[in-house]
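Changelog entry

Holo records now carry the ligand SMILES as an explicit input line rather than a separate metadata file. Below, a converted record for magnesium ion, shown in the new format.
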Amino acid sequence: MTTRPLIFTDMDGTLLDHYDYSFSSAIGVIEALVEKQIPIIANTSKTFAEMEKIQQTIGFNSPFISENGAVVYIPIGYFDTQPADTITQGYYWVKEFCEPREHWLQLLDSKASDFASDYIGFSTLTAEELCEFTDLSAEKATLALVRHYSEPVLWTADESRKRAFIEHMNSLGANMLQGGRFLHVGGHTDKGRAMDWLAQVYADKYQTSVQTIALGDSGNDSAMLEAADVAIQIKSPTHTFPKIITDNKTMQSKHYGPKGWAECLQALLLESSTSTPSFTLEEA
Ligand SMILES: [Mg+2]
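Structure line, unchanged by the conversion:
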């Protein structure tokens, strides 16, 4: 049986440059992978609206995983038949892994009102206000605000109060994820579980075994990297490689961001077949 490689990639700091969000140094390798019909699947904290725009910019028509593993979007018709356990939304088959954002907003409102003056919630911000807290442009801030599965909050009180808040929200069933600037209130999802689900869909639909190759730069990629058959850590200009625990093949890039992304996938999938004997590529 042939094995089909599937690439699952983080976006910010991995395929997109940490500072200017450019992916230009990876274009050549992206084109070569598309030529070989190897799917490149974004697995990101970004929202649907942000990702739809990026998919168009890069020219991807593959499924993508959004909001840190909360949801998988598969363009309708990408597979011959609709995968089990998905719903249809607009142009996509959608697999959800947690309650929607309204659930978390309601929980904050009804069961955590004691903390209401300790943070600023995304849902109360305008795009202009979000621009002031981030480096996002007005257009990108507008897309970032439209979240479907989690509520990011900007903490304004002290650390001990924050710990109390996290504990309280955990007791209500929320999963609290600390991002660079924002604390995310959402469900128990991770990039690894969503990757595994989608990889199984590929295996079923193509009647083949699959090899998951995951790329990421940060701690929120660890679950995905540890679940993957090949874990590729992309070097970050802002922190050292997070520790991951896996018995599978691992690689660490020499270059930062998209240049490191291209460097590793070039070596793994595109160099002469004698150097990558474990892969047999099957044309779809
Ligand atoms: Mg990242």
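Spot-checked after migration. The pocket of magnesium ion is lined by residues 10, 12-14, 217-218 (CB under 6 Å). The chain has two domains: 3-97+190-275, 101-186.
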